[in-house]
Design a protein that fits this description.
alpha/beta; Maf protein; 5-stranded mixed β-sheet; about 150 residues
Length: about 150
């Protein structure tokens, strides 16, 4: 999958950036594991705290207060924010609950919102995975990369 993503990004001449919370930089790590990634990957922000989400990515305080850090709205604002911040064609973002703690009655461990932002549209998808922390982070990252691949193959 990563080689296909890399090939499509290069072929289309597109630049990408990431905004990651629950994945802690794993998506950026995966994207940069492909040789030649400097031809399409510009950078990423690991925005684990709400402060970083607001200050660097432009997530609105009202969004965090009303919907929470783990929400469709926050994922959307993170992706749009990093796309603008790093001046790229495409951005992907993740926010979720890797576990084992942090769950609420409405937001279980394994919940993630993955978002893709482009000039044409912003996509947000919700997933719930059943795994331990590292398994969930891997699943979260792969879900976001699958959204990216679907978009690129569009």
């Amino acid at each position: 999958m990563l080689e296909r993503i890399a090939s499509l990004l290069k072929e289309k001449g597109l630049w990408i950036a990431t905004a990651e919370s629950c994945t802690g930089g794993l998506i950026a790590h995966k994207l940069t594991n492909v040789p030649g990634s400097s031809e399409y990957f510009k950078g990423g922000v690991v925005s684990y705290s709400n402060e970083v989400k607001m200050k660097l990515l432009g997530v609105r305080e009202e969004t965090l207060r009303e919907y929470g850090a783990v929400s469709e709205q926050t994922a959307r604002e993170m992706a749009n924010g990093v796309r603008k911040l790093l001046d790229v064609d495409i951005a992907i973002a993740t926010t979720g609950i890797a576990g084992p703690g942090g769950a609420t009655p409405t937001k279980p461990v394994g919940l993630v919102y993955a978002s893709l932002s482009s000039p044409e549209k912003t996509i947000v998808k919700k997933f719930v995975f059943k795994g331990e922390r590292e398994e969930n982070k891997e699943s979260f990252a792969n879900a976001a990369l699958n959204i990216l691949l679907e978009y690129l193959e569009g």
